[in-house]
Amino acid sequence: MTTAAIAVALAVLIGLAVMQVLIIAGRPVGEYAWGGQHRVATPRLRRAAAAAIVLYVGFALLLMSRAGVLPGGSTGVIVVATWVLFAYCAVAIVPNSISRSRRERLVQTPVSIVLAFSVLVIAAAPGA
User: Fold this and answer.
1) Ramachandran region, residue 127 (left: φ > 0; alpha: ψ -120 to 50; beta: rest)
2) What top-level branch of life does the organism fall under (predicted)?
3) Which three-class secondary structure string do you get for the chain?
4) CA 99 to CA 30: how far, in whole Å?
5) What distances in angstroms separate CA 99 from CA 10, 24, 94, one per listed residue?
6) Which pLDDT score, from 0 to 100, does residue 32 have?
7) Quick one: what percent of the chain has pLDDT higher than 90?
8) Is there a contact between 2 and 68 (Cβ–Cβ < 8 Å)?
9) SS3 assignment, position 35
10) Sorting pLDDT into bands at 50, 70 and 90, what band is 89?
11) Which of 15, 86, 109, 128 is close enough to 119 for a disulfide, judged by CB 3.0 to 4.6 Å?
12) Alpha-carbon dihedral of residues 26, 104, 11, 43, nearest 10 degrees?
């Protein structure tokens, strides 16, 4: 189950990163992110998109470590950090589900749910 969960989590993170790259590039996908208030992201939101990509890379590395793809997955720091990431992903479901942007609600809510469930499976897996 962990193998499927890491594959799904990485696919979701890659998809989210691609969306952030499109936002940075000024593509009109802003209705799907950051509250959906700007079809084309402002310079501030573009900087936030760049920061999000860095976070997604960190999330991916953390999850790969916990899943046993990278070393250190059973260390206390990695285990705790994975549970913290799960909590973050679970909480992210709420703002996505109540966004003013219909497109963000329709797309990002299920994405958030899938990512949170995948992270939960990885976090709860016995020693990596």
Assistant:
1) beta
2) Bacteria
3) CHHHHHHHHHHHHHHHHHHHHHHHCCCCCHHHCHHHCCCCCCHHHHHHHHHHHHHHHHHHHHHHHHCCCCCCCCCHHHHHHHHHHHHHHHHHHHHHHCCCCHHHHHHHHHHHHHHHHHHHHHHHCCCC
4) 13
5) 24, 21, 9
6) 84
7) 79
8) yes
9) helix
10) very high
11) 86
12) 30
Pick from 126, 114, 14: nearest CA to 60? 14
* Secondary structure E strands in 42-127: none
pTM of the model: 0.91
Residues in the chain, total? 128
DSSP, collapsed to helix, strand or coil, labels residue 110 as helix
| Amino acid present at 115 | L
CB 10 within 8 A of CB 63: yes
